[in-house]
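Limitations

Structures in this collection are predictions, not experimental determinations, and the ligand pose is part of the prediction. Treat each record accordingly. The example that follows, with coenzyme A as the small molecule, is included so readers can see exactly what is and is not provided: the inputs are given verbatim, and the output is the predicted complex.
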Amino acid sequence: MDSTSSDISTPTRTPNPKQAQSPSDFTFRCPDATDGAAVFQLVRDCKPLDENSMYCNLLQCSHFSSTSIAAEANGQLAGFISGYRLPEQPDTLFVWQVAVHPDFRGKRLATQMLETLLRRIGDVHYLHTTITPDNLASWNTFRRLAQDLGATLNSQTFFDKDAHFGGVHDSEELVVIGPF
Ligand SMILES: CC(C)(COP(=O)(O)OP(=O)(O)OC[C@H]1O[C@@H](n2cnc3c(N)ncnc32)[C@H](O)[C@@H]1OP(=O)(O)O)[C@@H](O)C(=O)NCCC(=O)NCCS
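Predicted complex:
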């Protein structure tokens, strides 16, 4: 179960990887509005994620706090997932972005955040997300999750490069995991 306490009274927002080398060093909690600026910077550090406005990150951390998760290492933001329930399918979590600071990758942090978030929410049976075809790390992260959940993973084009993005952004595949 997540800790929802916010023991970040003196937050330093620059990760120091030397102080967090093992998965057990991470703590997980619901984000709040004071995380918005750090999330904005984290996403900037996580290419190829699309950058949103800081205002958007503030909304993710406040209105969507209960379906999002922040991971800390020594009080610093190491990872973040923004998500929300599909308005017409509340048993489905839509994962908007997964971001793990480059200094903390390869430690199963994305996997731990996803699994901790699903445990915390409790009553969702499907997960949707979108992935560009060439983002291998992302595909492998969600394949691992599906495997761990014992659920099937299907995908199909959702937002097309030309039809939806005006040719300026790669197509996004809709990934559907579930039921679980
Ligand atoms: C994608 C990302 C979130 C993965 O974070 P992470 O904490 O390093 O991922 P994990 O350690 O939990 O690994 C999950 C799985 O993906 C695989 N994986 C992770 N990074 C990978 C890479 N660069 N290339 C290939 N596979 C990779 C892992 O091997 C693991 O699979 P396995 O359990 O079958 O071995 C991170 O690289 C990131 O923030 N990237 C930039 C932002 C982005 O593209 N986000 C997309 C949403 S997932």
